[in-house]
Write a structure and sequence with these properties.
Layout (H helix, E strand, L loop, with lengths): L2 E6 L14 E2 L2 E2 H14 L5 E6 L2 H7 L5 E5 L11 H8 L9 E4 L9 H6 L1
Parallel strand pairs: 1-4, 1-6, 4-5
Antiparallel strand pairs: 2-3
Length: 120
């Protein structure tokens, strides 16, 4: 079974500007989600990792990690009202090797561990 890690991370937030780039323990929030996803790839939990973003700044925060892919959102999917399901409906059909399952990793959960992912 192919499993993809999908990290939705836009630059701006209504309540906290640049939230996904906010520093937490020395790294931006989005980095923590991408880092745990790379650990998941290393143990065979995930086959691919995609960061869905509207910003090069988000991509620059994670592109030093191995096996991370970026998907720049189309203009129509950059609004505050866009839901993750909308992002997935647009992203999935464009995948050459379509995953059987997708695990959404929110950048705003930096305390998540590999054990949490394995157990879920």
């Amino acid at each position: 079974m192919r499993v993809a890690a999908f990290i939705p991370a836009k630059l701006e937030s209504r309540r906290l500007p640049r939230k996904n780039l906010t520093d937490f323990a020395g790294h931006p929030l989005v980095w923590w989600a991408a880092s745990i996803a790379t650990e998941g790839v290393a143990i065979g939990l995930f086959d691919s990792i995609t960061v869905s973003t509207d910003s090069a700044a988000i991509w620059n925060a994670v592109n030093n990690l191995p096996r991370i892919g970026v998907d720049y959102r189309p203009e129509t999917l950059r609004a505050e009202s866009v839901r993750v399901i909308d992002l997935l409906r647009e992203w999935l059909p464009r995948q050459k090797e379509r995953p059987d399952a997708v695990c959404v990793l929110w950048p705003t959960s930096p305390l998540r561990t590999l054990r949490h992912l394995v157990e879920s």
